[in-house]
């Protein structure tokens, strides 16, 4: 039935229409426990912390993921203790 959402705070940006690219934070809550959240910070080298919102195209068929761009050389952004390199 599509994406169901709850606006906790109304934004001031333009209305998302079919075909536009949107970026959202999400929380997956099961029985009152947050199982997954895009608000969870990721620690980068140099003690920099970022959150990772999800980006998608409004109206795209389910299962169509955004293209993820990876680079071989991250110029020191990730430490040796970080997660495995993506393919």
TrEMBL record:
One Gene Ontology cellular component: chloroplast thylakoid lumen
Instruction: Extract the GO molecular function terms from the UniProt entry.
Output: peptidyl-prolyl cis-trans isomerase activity
Q: Does the keyword Isomerase apply?
A: yes
Q: Where are the transmembrane segments?
A: none
Print the keywords alphabetically: Isomerase
In which organism is this protein found? Silene latifolia
The record's section on InterPro entries has: FKBP18-like, PPIase_dom_sf
Q: What is this protein called?
A: Peptidylprolyl isomerase
């Amino acid at each position: 039935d599509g994406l169901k959402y709850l606006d906790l705070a109304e934004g001031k940006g333009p209305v998302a229409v079919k075909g536009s690219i949107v970026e959202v934070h999400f929380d997956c809550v099961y029985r009152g426990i947050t199982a997954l959240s895009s608000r969870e910070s990721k620690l980068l080298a140099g003690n920099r912390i970022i959150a990772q919102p999800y980006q998608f195209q409004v109206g795209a068929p389910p299962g169509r993921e955004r293209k993820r761009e990876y680079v071989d050389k991250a110029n020191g952004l990730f430490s040796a203790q970080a997660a495995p390199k993506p393919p």
